[in-house]
Design a protein that fits this description.
By secondary structure, this protein is an alpha/beta fold. The chain is built from 12 helices and 16 strands.
Length: 415
């Protein structure tokens, strides 16, 4: 192992032996799922005033340990925001290695699809359809058509935490063979089923039927939620699949592929973009696996966008309101970044951001309407202040700039 030293860079990163063999010219866009950085001015309208995912986690656990993200400039972002809340344990860097800023969502909503699609260049106004939180959540005619087409009844039919509703209804589901159907504050229909009762392929088929039936309502996602286990020990598996509403405009992924630029999707990205504009995809089920897949795609020849979602923050710790687990997941990613940054060639660009917040110290179990961090790192280049960006689609415009595409309808490039 040897070390690389950049001009004006006081930090030294170890380089693995294979790093020198990586081809040039990749953009790695990583969505740190739900890693918000403070309430937006309109947070109160969403019931999220006071939310601040990173800051509240740091305060709750006595300080975050994120040395690499700190060197990149994560701690330099909060002073740009109206509330200015610092991240305990992650102070501003004197000479941040990455350009740093924050982005405010302009679309209506605080869900995964809305956030990712805005990153890809779209604006969702009006937003997706949301179902009532109280029982019954779903329209009778929708349930009737779904039950007729699948031959199975529905139980649940309300907003709920995924773990809680499985604990509540799993035994009934196993006895009756019914679908557990539930929603949340997001525009979503979630279908849960025990693998021994409804095989995985049948669950996926049911979700495709629900997707088609939900299209007239403009529902953002239908999600398959398989689980296993016995009473008192039910567990969700990594067989989750997301079935997204079809975008009504071209995404940046499609524009890139049309221009001959490969797009490599990691994690749930392929599902979120409705499989539009994807050259190759690896549907990893957890963050550690996604990190390995990014390294694998880095070895592809030539230009390309590697578009990844790190799901654990949101799925395992945000919704379950576990700040200690969330902090540990942040540290795991920080440790991975320590080894990954030296693998980047001079023309490579690493973009780190998020799609929404999910403050694990906040009330309820839903996403939170927050600013998201923006870090843009290119080896050997000094970090600059990017300010507060109005619209996640500044990322899409920046990707268009990077590959000399025609300007997109929205956004301002920071590259």
């Amino acid at each position: 192992m040897h070390f690389q030293h950049f001009e004006g860079n006081p930090f030294h990163f170890p380089i693995s032996p294979q790093a020198d063999t990586f081809p040039l010219m990749k953009v790695i866009l990583i969505v740190l799922d739900s890693v918000g950085i403070g309430e937006t001015p309109d947070a109160e309208a969403y019931g999220d005033a006071g939310s601040a995912t990173l800051q509240n986690i740091g305060k709750t656990i006595g300080g975050l340990e994120l040395p690499t993200l700190q060197k990149l400039g994560l701690g330099n972002i909060p002073p740009l925001l109206p509330n200015g809340l610092s991240i305990k344990g992650c102070a501003p860097a004197t000479k941040p290695l990455a350009s740093y800023g924050a982005m405010q969502e302009v679309s209506q909503g605080k869900d995964t699809i809305t956030g990712h699609w805005e990153i890809c260049g779209l604006e969702i106004n009006p937003g997706f359809h949301n179902f009532p939180m109280e029982f019954p959540s779903f329209p009778p005619e929708l349930l009737k058509e779904f039950e007729q087409e699948t031959g199975r009844p529905i139980i649940g039919n309300k907003a709920a935490s995924g773990i809680a509703i499985i604990d509540e209804l799993a035994e009934e589901q196993m006895k009756t063979g019914a679908w557990i159907a539930y929603t949340s504050a997001d525009s979503v229909v979630q279908l849960a089923a025990h693998n021994d009762v409804i095989p995985l392929e049948e669950l996926y088929k049911g979700c495709k039927i629900a997707r088609r039936l939900c299209n007239p309502l403009k529902v953002g996602r239908v999600i398959a939620r398989p689980f296993t286990g016995k009473a008192g020990a039910f567990e969700r598996t990594e067989g989750r699949r997301d079935y997204a509403y079809t975008p009504e405009e071209l995404l940046i992924t499609e524009r890139l592929v049309e221009a001959g630029i490969p797009v490599y999707a990691v994690g749930k990205i392929e599902d979120i973009v409705a499989h539009r504009g994807i050259t190759e995809s690896i549907h990893s089920g957890n963050t550690a696996e996604s990190q390995k897949m990014i390294e694998q795609f880095m070895q592809k020849e030539g230009d390309g966008l590697i578009f990844a979602n790190f799901i654990d923050f949101d799925m395992l710790y945000g919704h379950r309101r576990d700040p200690a687990g969330y902090a540990a997941a942040l540290k795991q990613t920080d440790d991975w970044l320590t080894g990954f940054l030296p693998m980047l060639a001079d023309d490579d660009i690493l973009l780190l951001t998020a799609d929404h917040g999910n403050d694990p110290t906040f009330k309820g179990t839903d996403h939170t309407r927050e600013y998201v961090p923006l870090l843009s790192y290119q080896p050997g280049r000094c970090g600059e202040r990017l300010g507060i960006r109005q619209g996640f689609y500044d990322i899409a415009q920046s990707l268009a700039t990077r590959w000399n595409l025609a300007p997109l309808p929205r956004g301002n490039s920071f590259l």
